[in-house]
Fold this protein.
Amino acid sequence: MILTLLAQAAAAVQGPGSLGDIWQHIVADFSNLSEPAALAAFGQVLMIDLVLAGDNAVVVGALAAGLPAEQRKKVILIGIIAALVLRIFFALIVTWLMGIVGLIFAGGLLLLWVSWKFWRELRVDAHGNAGSSEIDGDEQSGLAPARSFAAAAWAVAVADVSMSLDNVLAVAGAAREHPGILVVGLVLSVALMGLAANLIARVIGKYRWIAYIGLAVIVFVAFKMIYEGWTGTGETIGLSTLF
């Protein structure tokens, strides 16, 4: 379902394509996964998906923490659904735009800002947020909970826009030269957010070093994009080779 939506929407933007083309790239990349470049790209994508899915869940849970249980569950559900939709939308837009000369450099600068924001979240101490019972680890977010359902829903929607763009941009930057890994990484980011975000948040909350490894990967991808954008190398991106 997700692959079909990605293919149809990207085809509408970039030209005719098919799921068969996508599948061929996936098979090609994963059959060569033992190659250092492909393995490194897949490892980077996996780590980025894990830490940003957990971060997304923590932020949503923290913003909803001050609401009654029934409203809190609704806000968290809204946050998850919005994140799923936005990840698919941004996957199509970012992979298309990053084929334009110069935008890889701009994307790298944006990822540096994402890294700084993530670093601050990891370093900040909790202040006045007891967290929500649905999401583990959100009491350590450092975010103040929203005071009403409307305020919480709006704050979650705004946060989802930023965090979904961060996730897709990082995955696209890590796997630009491996379109099959790129597609799997985008699908995986949606699946993790929808099915396992709370579990990931719990694990990262217990083992904080995982988040720091993820941060290091994002910083590496950011500097790589800046370098390639500055020197004019790597200006094509995975999905643009599919259609």
